[in-house]
């Protein structure tokens, strides 16, 4: 069997509403971090708060990055009931959302 040579990265940037409390944001982050355990096909996951000094975040405060072996795994994730329920939960709290997917060589 050939070794995996590429991974599909799925990057999600969130900016939360000023009306959302720290507890609301923490709950959104907690729920996002659970998705790799709930949805098959997630090869990697990490997240963090924006700490860039450049002032170019356009309202985004949090970055979440996932990796998938292929488009089919990513597409299954996007429509998985637990991902859909997560979206329903965070929708009232998120002001800005940006999503970018791109391919990288495995191990990068």
UniProtKB/TrEMBL annotation:
Domain Stress-response A/B barrel: 8-102
Xref: SMART domains: Dabb (SM00886)
UniProt organism field: Plantimonas leprariae
Membrane-spanning parts: none
The name this protein goes by in its record: Dabb family protein
InterPro entries: Dabb (IPR013097), Dimeric_a/b-barrel (IPR011008), HS1/DABB1-like (IPR044662)
Subunit comment: Homodimer.
């Amino acid at each position: 069997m050939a070794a995996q040579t590429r991974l599909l990265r799925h990057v999600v940037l969130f900016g939360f509403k000023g009306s959302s409390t720290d507890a609301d944001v923490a709950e959104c982050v907690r729920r996002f971090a659970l998705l790799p355990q709930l949805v098959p096909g997630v090869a990697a996951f990490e997240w963090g708060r924006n700490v860039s000094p450049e002032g170019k975040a356009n309202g985004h405060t949090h970055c979440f990055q996932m990796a998938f072996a292929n488009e089919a795994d990513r597409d299954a994730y996007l429509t998985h009931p637990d991902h859909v329920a997560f979206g329903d939960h965070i929708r009232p709290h998120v002001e800005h959302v940006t999503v970018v997917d791109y391919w990288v060589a495995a191990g990068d």
